[in-house]
Design a protein that fits this description.
Layout (H helix, E strand, L loop, with lengths): L1 H20 L4 H15 L6 H12 L2 H4 L8 H15 L6 H18 L7 H75 L4 H30 L16 H10 L3 E7 L7 H21 L4 E8 L3 E9 L10 H12 L3 E7 L2 E9 L8
Helix pairs in contact: 1-2, 1-5, 2-3, 2-5, 3-5, 3-6, 5-6, 5-7, 6-7, 7-8, 7-10, 7-11, 9-10, 10-11
Length: about 375
């Protein structure tokens, strides 16, 4: 229906013009113009077939009806044909239709229009055909670029959503891993004390309950963020290096002796590095709580204008307990996203983990 609006308007305009002027053969002229406009309805679907056919029908007017130099509506039709040959074809095949139009005009000048012709007629014909074709190619190029831009924006949006959901998944793993580990350690200690010191066992079980409630609250917040499409629910700020002292205190209450040292300015860190540094320390302490032989760990975090360096060390147990490995994978993903480095391994009976997160410029060596 939309494709018929312009041809219908041109047909009405041409009919009114010929009825008012009434040149010789104006009835044939109306019929040919209406036929050409009727074919233009399919200019989008089959431009390479329809447009040259429109030109041939239109340029038959001098043979049956009025000369082309009397009505002006054929000029409008030729412009639409030239534009359509460029706009609705992906390649340059429309030039074949342009050649058919030029040939039909040439035949009209040679065999029907007996006036004297010169170079100005060539320029007039070119002005009828070339500018609409060029405009059609430009319009198509802009339309294709707009579609590509829209697709790229959609891909960027989806990638951003995916990255945010991956981040939240890592947040869930870090929080739940820490809480469950603390609950397991506290419950085991309570089992040992339940007969010897019921009061201390009851206190430990109360800590287990508090840890579980805290984990549930944090899990609920993160799940709300996953379901939040308008970012209205993420009101609680993400933790950062400013909360490392509180984090260390939580682990101390869970039974891990934590020696925390933070040097350098951390208040102006980018949010991505700030959150990642906190989560890396949290995951490293969670592993220390599970596997440390002497239930102790040391954390050294130093900040410079170019990078944040994190080192966590704890004694290895007499036997190695294999975990899922997801914690180290999550830390590696965080570090990789920021363009940093991560190194970990056992050195002289102690497990050492070192992460370097670049802030500006090049990261420091690990």
């Amino acid at each position: 229906m939309r494709d018929a609006i312009l041809p219908a308007a041109i047909a009405v305009l041409g009919t009114v013009e010929l009825v008012v002027l009434r040149p010789d053969g104006w009835g044939y002229g109306i019929a040919l113009e209406c036929a050409a406009c009727a074919l233009l309805v399919w200019r989008r679907r089959a431009p390479l077939v329809v447009c040259p056919l429109v030109a041939v029908v239109l340029l038959a007017m001098p043979w049956l009806g009025p000369p082309l130099d009397q009505p002006s509506t054929p000029i409008v039709i030729i412009v639409v044909v030239g534009y359509s040959l460029a706009r609705y074809l992906r390649d340059l095949r429309g030039l074949a239709g342009v050649a058919v139009m030029a040939l039909a005009l040439l035949l009209d000048y040679l065999f029907v229009d007996t006036r004297h012709h010169d170079l100005s007629d060539v320029f007039f014909t070119a002005a009828l055909i070339v500018p609409p074709y060029v405009l059609g190619r430009l319009t198509r190029r802009l339309a294709v670029q707009a579609e590509q831009l829209a697709r790229q924006q959609e891909l960027v949006r989806r990638e951003a959503v995916r990255a945010e959901r991956d981040r939240i998944a890592r947040e869930l793993h870090d929080e739940i891993a820490h809480s469950v580990s603390a609950m397991v350690v506290q419950t085991a200690a309570a089992q040992d004390l339940v007969r010897v010191s019921p009061d201390r066992a009851a206190g430990l079980l109360a800590d287990v309950a508090a840890t579980g409630r805290r984990a549930l609250a944090e899990t609920g917040r993160l799940l709300h963020l996953i379901r939040d499409e308008t970012h209205e629910l993420g009101l609680t700020p993400a933790p950062g290096t400013a909360q490392l002292a509180d984090l260390a205190e939580r682990f101390r209450r869970d039974g891990l002796r934590v020696d925390l040292q933070v040097t350098g300015p951390t208040g102006a860190l980018p949010s991505s590095a700030d959150v990642s540094a906190y989560r890396i320390v949290q995951e490293a302490l969670t592993n220390a709580l599970r596997y440390s032989a002497d239930r102790s760990a040391s954390v050294r975090l130093s900040s410079t204008p170019t990078a944040v360096r994190i080192q966590v060390v704890n004694a290895c147990g007499p036997r190695r307990v294999d975990g899922s490995g997801l914690g180290l994978v999550g830390m590696a993903e965080r570090v990789s996203l920021l363009g940093g480095t991560l190194a970990h391994g056992v050195v002289d009976g102690r497990f050492e983990l070192t992460a370097v997160l670049p802030v500006a410029g090049e990261a420091e060596p690990a």
